[in-house]
Write a structure and sequence with these properties.
The chain has eleven helices and eight strands. With 250 residues, the protein is an alpha/beta fold. The protein has one domain: Aldolase class I (TIM Barrel). Strand 3, helix 4 and strand 4 form a beta-alpha-beta unit. 46% of the residues are buried.
Length: 250
């Protein structure tokens, strides 16, 4: 089974916004990523617009349509964002939890606890032609809740796995990885496409890429950071090489 790489270009916009002006342009980053072999482009339009802006999403969609590359629009589950997504009409929409004070997404969306509120939004997005993905923890409760909506995809939060490895806690990382594997099996059995993302690097991506149910990995911050040292195209090429090797070995 092939494994896709979605490249998140949010933090090119973070760098641009730190100085103001137009450079570096996240749309140019998306163009380079596509030329380097990215299977899709991901961008998160946050409510506070801290990095990606509305006009970025419009330009990204124009580029992705021109190059026939899927655009994955990450967003909070709010009426404002639903309306923007329905207007831009990206290939996919990924609903993520969002807190104003967080530096980055800190966990999965609470689909089970917000089911009645989320279902109409998910249906509206699906009706507009988007493949809806839910960014969740790999737990039975959240997977079953996701499967009872119009969402076609779940993306499992791999941040806890990455943080455990950063902290040198291999036993905890192995336990979380087991949960990610079991979650993939359960989600696929429920008819959901399975993606993984958050905190993945050259050093920790292989065990996740080896999960047989994984169809796509979405990676951004690490790739953009490595691009400072080795260039964006080579960073994407190296990540793809590691992913492919891990899948073939599995």
């Amino acid at each position: 089974m092939s494994l896709r790489l979605g490249v998140n270009i949010d933090h090119v916009a973070t760098l641009r916004n730190a100085r103001g002006g137009m450079h570096p342009d996240p749309v140019n980053a998306a163009r380079v990523a596509i030329e380097a072999g990215a299977d899709g482009i991901t961008a998160h339009l946050r409510e506070d617009r801290r990095h990606i802006r509305d006009e970025d999403m419009e330009r990204l969609q124009a580029l992705c349509l021109k190059t026939e590359t899927p655009l994955n629009f990450e967003m909070a589950a709010t009426e404002e964002m639903v309306e923007i997504a329905r207007r831009i009409r990206p290939h996919a929409v990924c609903l993520v939890p969002e807190k104003r004070e967080e530096r980055t997404t800190e966990g999965g969306l609470e689909v089970a606890g917000q089911h009645n509120r989320l279902v109409p939004m998910i249906q509206q997005l699906a009706d507009s032609g988007a493949r809806v993905s839910l960014f969740i923890e790999a737990t039975k409760r959240q997977i079953e809740a996701a499967a009872s909506t119009a969402a076609e995809v779940v993306e499992f939060h791999t941040g806890a796995y990455a943080h455990a490895l950063d902290d040198g806690d291999q036993a905890l990382a192995d336990s979380i990885l087991t949960q990610l594997v079991e979650g993939g099996t359960l989600a696929a059995a429920a008819g959901l496409e399975v993606h993984y993302g958050h905190g993945l690097t050259f050093d920790n991506v292989a065990p996740v890429a080896a999960i047989s149910e994984a169809m796509e990995l979405n990676i951004g911050h690490f790739i953009i950071g490595e691009a400072v040292f080795m260039g964006l195209g080579p960073a994407i090429a190296k990540m793809r090489e590691i992913m492919i090797a891990a899948r073939e070995a599995a």
